[in-house]
């Protein structure tokens, strides 16, 4: 047996130049959610260059699923997201975004390159090993945004039915707060439920010199804001995870005119379903004070991605594949991730891959960048996890 075929660390290291080439191409030409047409074309071009012929395109929009199979056996999916963010890049890199106001500031360019690397090594190793089963490589569109129906790319890919036969699904996310050589793994809820609310406070506008003749919604908003912020520390069990944040306040057109309405938009984050429901009720209760102050209101709460719940059995694959690396056992934070829709239906998990530079570039920052050598670790861990999945 050719032992080189089993040395995934070495094989991943050998394709680093291609990983960098692919990642920089996607970084240079980013596309927003539901607009990833050229990204999709490039992915298909690369996959075909490996000799892959079972490629399904147009899945959930511009999604792609490539399949390798040796016949009967378990079915595993490996997922990468391919869309970018509406952020103006601030960088002097030679591969800086060429699409004004659009940037890969969350690492999806690296996720896509890593999955292409996995595809390349799978093609080179699949027949050489005793694996029996199927691997589906899932290039998922629209992780960062939802459509008018409130559906992200993960929802649409799941609706296609192509993943109905999966026995497990794996993903990774770049982690700029960890250096290369480390991964972050966590069982159970690891990223937050993501709910958004929009509150419109209705009063009666008028001249700023005659406030007694108005019902000032800005004045009402001062009480509402205090009450909303108090939910974080006084309504949620300190041992539970939940927070309410305000992201946008809008009201008024002139310095001397009291407006008729004020708009407040915010987000509600939580890990547990019961806290999610409780915070929604608390936001509704806060709004009742507007009536007591003489005004009226409209409130809408839109549920977004559910909490990312990582399956312990899948995480065991990551821990085994990451032996020799530094493994941090911590939740990933209060961000959200639409991979959670997949793990809600299929045993699955995501790990965070250390890729931090000396000067940390946080996710969604205009100068976000990574240690590109970390992509080698991502490919090797995924390959080892696939192998162990079939062995298990």
Shape: elongated
> What proportion of the residues is helical, as a percent range?
25-40%
State the CATH class of the largest domain.
Answer: Alpha Beta
Rg result: 24 Å
Strand order of the largest sheet: 1-2-4-3-5-16-6-15
Largest sheet: 8 strands, mixed
- Helix-strand pattern: HHHEEEHEHEEEEEHEEEHEEHEHEH
- The CATH architecture of the largest domain comes to 3-Layer(aba) Sandwich
Please report the total strand number as a whole number. Answer: 16
What is the CATH superfamily of the largest domain? Zn peptidases
CATH topology of the largest domain: Aminopeptidase
Q: Indicate the proportion of strand residues.
A: 25-35%
How many domains is the backbone divided into?
Answer: 2
Average per-residue pLDDT, rounded, comes to 96
Q: Roughly how many Å apart are the termini?
A: 21 Å
How many helices in DSSP terms? Answer: 10
Specify the structural class. Answer: alpha/beta
Query: Low-confidence parts, pLDDT < 50 over ≥5 residues?
Result: none
Organism: Halobacillus seohaensis
InterPro entries: Amidohydrolase (IPR017439), Bact_exopeptidase_dim_dom (IPR036264), Peptidase_M20 (IPR002933), Peptidase_M20_dimer (IPR011650)
Pfam families: M20_dimer, Peptidase_M20
Domain Peptidase M20 dimerisation: 196-286
């Amino acid at each position: 047996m050719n032992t080189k075929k089993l040395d995934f660390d070495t094989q991943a290291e050998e394709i680093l130049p291609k990983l960098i080439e692919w990642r920089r191409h996607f970084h240079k030409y980013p596309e927003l959610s539901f607009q990833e047409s050229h990204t999709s074309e490039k992915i298909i071009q690369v996959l075909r260059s490996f000799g892959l012929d079972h490629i399904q395109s147009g899945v959930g929009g511009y999604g792609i699923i490539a399949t390798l199979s040796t016949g009967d056996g378990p079915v595993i999916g490996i997922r990468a997201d391919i869309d970018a963010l509406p952020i103006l890049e601030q960088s002097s890199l030679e591969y800086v975004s060429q699409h004004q106001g659009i940037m890969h500031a969350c690492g999806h360019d690296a996720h896509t390159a890593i999955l292409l690397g996995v595809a390349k090594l799978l093609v080179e190793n699949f027949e050489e090993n005793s694996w029996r089963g199927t691997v589906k490589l899932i290039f998922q569109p629209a992780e960062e945004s939802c459509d008018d129906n409130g559906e992200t790319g993960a929802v649409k890919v799941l609706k296609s039915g192509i993943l109905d036969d999966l026995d497990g699904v794996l993903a990774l996310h770049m982690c700029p707060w960890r250096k290369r050589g480390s991964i972050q793994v966590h069982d159970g809820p690891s990223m937050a439920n993501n709910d958004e609310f929009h509150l419109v406070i209705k009063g009666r506008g008028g001249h700023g010199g005659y406030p007694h003749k108005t019902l000032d919604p800005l004045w009402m908003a001062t009480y509402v804001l205090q009450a909303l912020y108090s939910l974080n520390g006084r309504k949620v069990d300190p041992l539970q995870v939940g927070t309410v944040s305000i992201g946008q306040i809008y009201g008024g057109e002139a310095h001397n005119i009291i407006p008729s309405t004020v708009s407040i938009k915010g987000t509600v984050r939580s890990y547990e379903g019961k806290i999610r429901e409780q915070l929604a009720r608390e936001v509704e209760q806060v709004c009742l004070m507007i009536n007591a102050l003489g005004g009226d209101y409209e409130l809408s709460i839109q549920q977004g991605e559910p909490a990312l719940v990582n399956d312990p059995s899948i995480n065991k694959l990551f821990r085994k594949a990451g032996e020799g690396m530094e493994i941090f056992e911590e939740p990933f934070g209060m961000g959200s991730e639409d991979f959670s829709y997949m793990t809600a239906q299929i045993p699955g998990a995501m790990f965070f891959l250390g890729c931090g530079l000396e000067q940390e570039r946080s996710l969604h920052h205009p100068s976000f960048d990574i240690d590109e050598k970390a992509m080698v670790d991502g490919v090797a861990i995924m390959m080892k996890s696939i192998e162990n999945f079939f062995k298990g």
